[in-house]
Amino acid sequence: MTRRLHPASSSSTTAALRPGIGLALGGGFVRGYTHLGVLGVLEQQHIPISCITGISMGSIFAAAYANGTPLPNIIAKCREIRLRDFAGWRVSRFGLASNKRLGALVRRFIGSNQFEDLSIPTAIVATDLGSGDPVVFKEGNLADALRASCAFPGLFKPVMIGTRCLADGSLVAPAPTQAARELGADTVVGVCVGMHDGHSGAPTNFFQVVCRAVSAAQKQQFEGWECHADLVLRPEVQALAWDDFERIDEAIEAGAAAARNALPHMRRLLLRQQEAHSALGRQGEFLLGEALQ
């Protein structure tokens, strides 16, 4: 793996310091593993990433990749992860489980616990249950931000940070494209896998009811998030259920297929970016030049 995709960032979180795409990774539990296939194709094709944002499962992969962890290592660790690794089952009126274990998983899986340690500008999005607004984390404690972004309602208890009661970021957007734009990305690519539970017919349990309710709400959020994207990838993962951990390889391949199909479009976007910034420094010209070959 080439380390060109992970140059050291400055203290600024402005992605405009570096050319490339701003990558916005959605949630989806096991479906979120499609993001690893997308990242693999971007690496193979030398498509630079100027910043990365994530919600729910996508937030974990965004942070791990931004930390500079080699993609094969991320995939290898993913094969070992199961729900019990971040869920401590303790039924309460707020949810079926706590995700406090996710903090330990972050330290083991990612190796960093602060946004400032990451080598790609990164933002993690959660939902404020008090106001219904998105909460965007770009600095400070990484584990707390990930726990909040992954607190899917009904399954996990909300996470309290200060006075705010926070839950899964997928409640405000299927992919955090606006956060990528706000970090400074000129070109934003979103990856959306949907929240439907993978089964047809009427829901048969509480979790399916919640998943389908979120999925229905997301269908009405088009203008709220897709307008911030130059391109949206929708991998074919409708047949995967949220907990199909044994089908991780299918999810990864679906993400890779979606990224390969979109390569011509991504190269056109990068060419447009290069033309709009003719005064880019040598490093920027080199990185975009490789991607456009």
Our measurement of the CA-to-CA distance between the termini, rounded to an integer number of angstroms, reads 19 Å
Strand content: 15-25%
Helix content: 25-40%
Structural class: alpha/beta
Mean pLDDT: 79
Radius of gyration of CA atoms, rounded to a whole number: 18 Å
Distinct helical segment count? 10
Largest sheet: 8 strands, mixed
Count of β-strands = 11
Shape, principal axes of CA atoms: globular
Task: State the low-pLDDT regions, or none.
Answer: 1-16, 87-98
Order of helices and strands: EHEHHEEHEEHEEEHEHHEHH
Written description of the protein model:
- The relative contact order is 0.19.
- Helix content is 38%, strand content 17%.
- It has helices at residues 34-44, 57-66, 71-78, 101-109, 142-149, 177-183, 206-218, 222-225, 248-276, 282-292; strands at residues 21-25, 49-54, 88-92, 95-98, 122-128, 134-137, 154-156, 159-161, 164-167, 187-191, 231-233.
- It contains 10 helices and 11 strands.
- It has 293 residues and is of the alpha/beta class.
- The two termini are 19 Å apart.
- Strands 1, 2, 5, 6, 8, 9, 10 and 11 form an 8-stranded mixed β-sheet that branches. The chain has a 3-stranded mixed β-sheet with strand order 3-4-7.
